[in-house]
């Protein structure tokens, strides 16, 4: 029996509801599998913790989770705390020091879910966006001067390092090569941003030479939004900077039916540190505590976690259970136009895990 140690960090808002559901579903997968088990350690870090302690997680926080096999994260955000504090104090405080430099965001139209794009079928929208997750526009470099005076000025400097770009390009080309179409689109803005984005393009071309079996093209980020809407089937794997991919992945999730189903993995490919898996949707305070959050984004993130842990059969079984459940409109939460509750969807997925003879 292999036991995985998982750090569960629900964070704020609906994060607590969906992570609790994720834990239940992972336990069900382990029970069904028979050869794996999960030991969850729960951490109460986030906005409420900040209100008591003046920080989002303890100073020793990272040390407490460094040795875990994976992290299951909910969301960070609090109505009474500025967003940049909750983000930098928890999510980025884990992603960046743990060098989770590849943020992987698969997007597909799951069975039973309708894309807002008319006539688009599941086969025509099957993408993976790789988001550079350690630097770029999220490097945190910049400052403010003359605050409160008419001279006030502020900068946010996007930092791109050769090593940082090379490693995320290599990761994306490798991922593209592992997918049937072997097709990669490199998103850029090198027409307007003539330094870092030009280097980004040059490095993409260099790395491409290591992957002669991958077809690749280059797309300006503004044109990419149009292509995603007008010609979704022309896209397969995408690599983009931290901010560009942040924006494109919300569009991708909406085109696939709902932000509520979109998963992500913050991956440290070298496995020096644990990787972190989370739904994209955020804390969603408007629906917090109502029991109607869509847990599918967390379940799909759990699939990514199982894949990362090397538990492919368990990952496939969970994905099949998710797809069986999304196919049934009675299991759709309000974000998908339905009336199901978090607990209904969770119970249905657990039933599908046990019932499925696969
Ligand atoms: C995401 C989110 C975060 C980001 C927010 C919560 C700061 O939108 O994971 O895409 O911009 O990185
Ligand atoms: Mg985002």
Query: How many DSSP helices?
Result: 11
N to C succession of SSEs: EHEHHEHEEEEHEHEHEHEEHHH
Number-wise, the strands total 12
Largest β-sheet summary: 10 strands, mixed
Classify the secondary structure makeup into a structural class: alpha/beta
Shape: globular
The ligands found in this model are: 3-isopropylmalic acid, magnesium ion
Give the amount of beta strand, in percent: 15-25%
Average of the residue pLDDT scores:
96
Alpha carbon gyration radius: 20 Å
Strand order of the largest sheet: 2-1-3-12-11-4-5-10-8-9
Helical content (DSSP H or I, runs of 4+) = 25-40%
List low-pLDDT spans.
none
Please characterize this protein's 3D structure.
- The protein contains 11 helices and 12 strands.
- The chain is of the alpha/beta class and 358 residues long.
- The two termini are 20 Å apart.
- The protein is globular and about 55 Å long.
- Strands 2-1-3-12-11-4-5-10-8-9 form a 10-stranded mixed β-sheet, sandwiched between helices. The chain has a two-stranded antiparallel ribbon with strand order 6-7.
- Strand 11 and strand 12 form a beta hairpin.
- The protein has helices at residues 15-33, 47-53, 61-65, 83-95, 162-178, 196-208, 221-230, 242-255, 296-308, 312-326, 342-355; strands spanning 2-11, 36-42, 70-75, 102-108, 126-132, 136-145, 153-159, 183-188, 215-220, 237-240, 263-267, 275-279.
- The structure holds 3-isopropylmalic acid and magnesium ion.
- 3-isopropylmalic acid (IPM) binds at residues 87, 246, 280, 282.
């Amino acid at each position: 029996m292999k036991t995985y140690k998982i750090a569960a960090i629900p964070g704020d808002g609906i994060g607590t509801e969906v992570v609790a559901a994720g834990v239940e579903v992972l336990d069900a997968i382990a029970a069904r599998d028979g050869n794996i088990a999960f030991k969850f350690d729960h951490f109460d870090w986030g906005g409420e913790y900040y209100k008591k302690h003046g920080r989002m997680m303890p100073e020793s926080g990272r040390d407490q989770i460094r040795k875990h096999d994976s992290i299951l994260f909910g969301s960070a955000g609090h109505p009474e705390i500025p967003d940049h504090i909750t983000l930098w104090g928890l999510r980025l405080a884990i992603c960046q020091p743990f060098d989770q430099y590849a943020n992987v965001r698969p997007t597909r139209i799951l069975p039973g879910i309708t894309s807002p794009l008319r006539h688009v079928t599941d086969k025509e929208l099957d993408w993976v966006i790789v988001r550079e997750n350690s630097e770029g526009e999220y490097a945190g470099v910049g400052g403010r001067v003359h605050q409160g005076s008419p001279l006030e000025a502020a900068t946010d400097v996007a930092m791109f390092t050769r090593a940082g770009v090379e490693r995320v390009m290599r990761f994306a080309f490798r991922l593209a090569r592992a997918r049937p179409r072997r097709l990669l689109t490199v998103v850029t803005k090198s027409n307007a941003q003539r330094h870092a984005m030009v280097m980004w393009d040059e490095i993409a071309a260099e790395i491409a030479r290591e992957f002669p079996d991958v077809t690749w093209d280059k797309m300006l980020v503004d044109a990419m939004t149009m292509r995603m809407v007008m010609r979704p089937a022309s896209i397969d794997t995408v690599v983009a900077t931290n901010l560009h991919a942040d924006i494109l992945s919300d569009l991708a999730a909406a085109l696939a039916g709902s932000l509520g189903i979109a998963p992500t993995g913050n991956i440290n490919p070298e496995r020096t540190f644990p990787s972190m898996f989370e739904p994209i949707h955020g804390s969603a305070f408007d629906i917090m505590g109502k029991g109607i959050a869509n847990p599918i984004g967390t379940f799909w993130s759990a699939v990514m976690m199982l894949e990362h842990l090397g538990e492919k059969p368990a990952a496939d079984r969970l994905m099949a259970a998710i797809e069986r459940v999304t196919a049934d409109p009675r299991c759709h939460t309000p974000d998908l136009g339905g009336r199901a509750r978090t607990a209904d969807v969770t119970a249905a997925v657990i039933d599908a895990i046990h019932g499925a003879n696969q």
